[in-house]
Inverse folding.
């Protein structure tokens, strides 16, 4: 009975206390205003933070997409240039065989293959950025890094070959021209001497490395003459190839081929190197945007766990 009476007293006291609090809450406008501002400021802060994150994400997404389109056209241009060089009269594969150095051919092949890869990679980057796909962006970033290193290596190869070309021409001509198994070397030297109106490696009429270099070659030791390709088109080949008197032999080309070929090689080498470095620079820029976008595109499960954690902390 006493306990029941005590319970009734406690219940009545609680009702009176709640009623008193309600009266204070209804009349205390300052307290209500304080609670309302606190709640509004919290929601505004959350909304502002979310808006800033969305804005940053959009910036990285649009930046990655724009640069992906840029490298798409760059890759298409590099691919076209690579095809042109491989089909050119002085193709890298022929020059590399004639010079005995594969660097020039390797640089051109790197440019050709990289151009095709850049086109495909740019499409992957565009779709990955547009669809906010971490998987596609991850593939894009990995391949992008490999391509940057490859293009820089190709540019270095092109510049190095340009400097080594003069030293490689002489030994190849002396030991391989006209020999069995060296048909491609012989063909290219004949083609070059006819097209450029030159004979031998370098120098002028009195140079031992121009037309006179053939006198030390295996071909001259066997045939006793210089190649027919060293003579003008309408020349008497019998007298032109065997007459070593330069004052009377006007049909023989007396200047070496290096100086004329070097201009072509240098131009192509600079073209390959400059385009490769420009493409590598563009890839570096798009790589930065892609990495930032990849970092901001957190997995959904991770985001849900973090939101649940934040909610539990607020409670």
């Amino acid at each position: 009975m006493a306990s029941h009476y005590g319970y009734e007293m406690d219940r009545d006291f609680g009702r009176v206390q709640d009623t008193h609090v309600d009266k204070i809450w209804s009349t205390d406008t300052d307290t209500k205003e304080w609670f309302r501002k606190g709640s509004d400021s919290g929601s505004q802060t959350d909304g502002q933070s979310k808006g800033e994150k969305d804005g940053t994400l959009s910036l990285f997404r649009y930046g990655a997409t724009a640069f992906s389109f840029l490298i798409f056209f760059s890759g298409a241009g590099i691919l076209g240039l690579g095809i042109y060089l491989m089909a050119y009269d002085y193709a890298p594969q022929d020059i590399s065989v004639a010079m005995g150095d594969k660097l020039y051919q390797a640089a051109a092949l790197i440019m050709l293959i990289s151009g095709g890869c850049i086109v495909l990679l740019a499409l992957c980057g565009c779709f990955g950025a547009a669809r906010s796909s971490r998987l596609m962006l991850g593939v894009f970033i990995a391949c992008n890094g490999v391509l940057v290193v490859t293009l820089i290596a190709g540019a270095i190869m092109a510049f190095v070959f340009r400097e080594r070309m003069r030293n490689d021409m002489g030994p190849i001509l002396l030991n391989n021209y006209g020999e069995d198994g060296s048909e491609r070397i012989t063909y290219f030297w004949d083609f070059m001497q006819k097209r450029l109106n030159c004979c031998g490696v370098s120098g002028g009429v009195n140079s031992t490395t121009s037309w006179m270099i053939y006198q030390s070659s295996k071909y001259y030791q066997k045939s006793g003459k210089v190649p027919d390709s060293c003579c003008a088109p309408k020349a008497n080949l019998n007298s032109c190839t065997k007459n070593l008197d330069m004052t009377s032999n006007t049909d023989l080309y007396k200047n070496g081929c290096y100086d004329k070929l070097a201009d072509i090689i240098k131009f192509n080498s600079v073209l390959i190197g400059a385009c490769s470095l420009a493409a590598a620079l563009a890839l570096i820029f798009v790589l930065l945007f892609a990495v930032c976008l990849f970092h901001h595109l957190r997995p959904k499960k991770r985001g849900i766990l973090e939101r649940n954690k934040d909610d539990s902390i607020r409670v």
Observations:
- Confidence is low (pLDDT under 50) at residues 1-21, 39-52, 300-310.
- The longest helix spans residues 29-87.
- The radius of gyration is 39 Å.
- Residues 17 and 23 are 10 Å apart (CA to CA).
